[in-house]
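W.,

You were right to be curious about this one. When I first looked at the sequence I had no strong expectations either way, so I just let the prediction run and decided to look at it fresh. Below is the sequence, 232 residues in total, followed by the output.
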Amino acid sequence: MATFIMYNEITQDKALVFYQNHMPDDPVTGVTEEMLNQPNSLTVEVIPKPEHRPNESYVLYINPTTKELFYEYHENLPYNPTDSPNIPSADIELLKRQLNLVSPYSEPQSLEEHKANKLFEISRECEDEILSGFYSNARGTMEWYTNSRDDQNNLIGQATLATLNPSFVPQWKSATESICTDFTMEQIIKLSTDGAVFKTERIKAFDMLKAQILPTTTVEEVEAIEWTKKVW
């Protein structure tokens, strides 16, 4: 699967990879057209696996000319519980970017960088709301259901099995139940459909905000756009 990266040049043949997105085409957490058009960005087919070196950590770099990816390894200092942590804030920030936990630009300068950060911000808020859970009356009364990524995949699996195999008895549970109980085929399909509609509505809301952000011409316009949590 392709991975989108962004990097900062250190020398002519060495640049630090500070951002990785392993799902660049995802409608919520994927990359924007502006990010794709950044000069120091690239979509690569494979990120090489780092070597396992005991007591060493690694940082990913790229050669801006040849586009070759490579790692540099650094010895880990022995841990002493009496020592206070002394991790440079720049290293912590780099790690967060590589894990796609923070916005692409810590200090955005251009309008396009502000747009990229805003799109990242609302995509995370959209995803957080999707993962927070949803209501469904699949069993006749309105109940709250968790909606983690595993929940979404497993619920689709239960509904699919129930549809393909009439003898299969699907099981699921609401957020207030501790164990799964039997659902009818109609109930599990209704629950799966409610979850899919819930997710689709949030993605549509993100797409609408994205359509507002892209044509903006000032930073003030960008910053004025915010994610609004959907009211039940």
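Here's what jumped out at me. The mean pLDDT is 87. And, maybe more interesting for your project: DSSP finds six helices and nine strands in the chain.

Coffee later to discuss?

I.
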